[in-house]
Amino acid sequence: MRILVLGFTGYLGAHVAERLRALPGARILGAGRSPDADHGVDLASVRPEELAKTLASAAPDAVVNCAGATGGDAVTLAEVNARGPAVLCAALREAAPGARLVHLGSAAEYGPGEPGKPVTESAATRPAGPYGATKLAGTAVVASSGLDSVVLRVGNPVGPGAPAAGLPGRLAALLRDAGRGPEAVLRLGDLSAHRDFVDVRDVARAAELAVTAPGPLPPVLNIGSGRAVPVRELVYGLAEKAGFRGRIEENATSAAGGRSIRSGDVAWQCSAIGAAARALGWHPAHTLDEALAALWEGDGSP
After folding, report:
1. Which of 58, 132, 274, 286 is the most buried (most CB within 10 A)?
2. Tell me: the pLDDT tens digits for 216-243?
3. 281: alpha, beta or left, given left = phi > 0 and alpha = psi -120 to 50?
4. CA angle 111–272–156, rounded 5-degree value
5. Using one digit for the tens of pLDDT, what is the confidence trace for 92-121?
6. Which domains does the chain have, with CATH numbers?
7. How many CB atoms lie under 10 A from the CB of residue 289?
8. How many CA atoms lie within 13 A of 191 on its CB side?
């Protein structure tokens, strides 16, 4: 089985590619802007006919699109998160219409949630910022493409190798620099929001199952923990793993932690994950505590 992974050097893509390499008989082809890529592809600028030639050369049985932008201005976000999937679908229809497409979306597409009510895939989508809006546009393109496709709407990934662009990775970097003495101070932003944190290794396993599952799949599947956790719980949990004995100061007006361009002003977010269990037999295998331990210790990173 030939599987093309777009964005294979990114945080999610690296874990997905590593997981897929363990499949018996699978050949994993990396595509992206990295010089190590088997196929050079920039979804922000590639033309459909050029990408179709690349796909014809790769001859994939499945394509997993992990490419995406989480930061930058609205134009940058739209080029990668909305235009990219549109070009990919057009090229697949021309060059590899039988290949399964697994596209990684985001729970940010839903926007603000109602406390105590996990959102299902049929819930209204009301993204709170450009990131969620552009990811939603990408999902719409994939879901209406007519291809054998599925969008995995991923919650807040955490675990080994988390980049500094997101709160878990940024917090780990701050803790490494803060020292461990009682005089150390960690100054963060508002930590009152609730998020659905999912281990990146569980996301990779969901992608593997989506690639190999028989028959057509639902257009969208939520991939999360199914539990809304206060961001404060993540912060104190990781501080404990780090052996931090100093003081954590929370300031609602500070940008040092808490909210991000991806979440905007979303106070509560949680995904219902029953559909993924039914369609893929997928359940999260790692707890948040295990994800934080792996993030701090570096276990399980590609």
Report:
1. 132
2. 999 999 999 999 999 999 999 999 999 9
3. left
4. 55
5. 999 999 999 999 999 999 999 999 999 999
6. 2-158+197-226+271-285 (3.40.50.720)
7. 13
8. 21
Task: Compute CA distances 184 → 217, 242, 284, whole Å.
Answer: 50, 13, 35
Task: Give 234: exposed, middle or buried? Use CB within 10 Å, 0-12, 13-18, 19+.
Answer: buried
Burial of 146 (0-12, 13-18, 19+ CB in 10 A): exposed
